[in-house]
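re: ur question from earlier - yeah i can do the single chain one, its not a big deal. heres the input i used so u can compare w yours
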Amino acid sequence: MNLTGRELWMVVHGMGLGATFLLAYAGGLAGLWSLRPEWVTVAGLQERSRRLGAGTWIMAIVAWLTVITGTYIVYPWYRA
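and the output i got, formated as tokens:
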């Protein structure tokens, strides 16, 4: 199977970045759910807080990369 340049960018935008963002979002919701008072110890709270912070940054970066590739690379081909 051969992909053209446009098809490759669409795969990167949709299946790569879009799917990564959705998985990170679901992971963030699960991380927030795990902060229930009966499940958290002091050590667990520190570890979960670091993980939620890193996950939030990663999710923000992936979201912006998805928007940028969609706006400036993929969408102009639809307009043409």
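Residues 23 and 59 are 9 Å apart (CA to CA). not sure if urs matches, ping me
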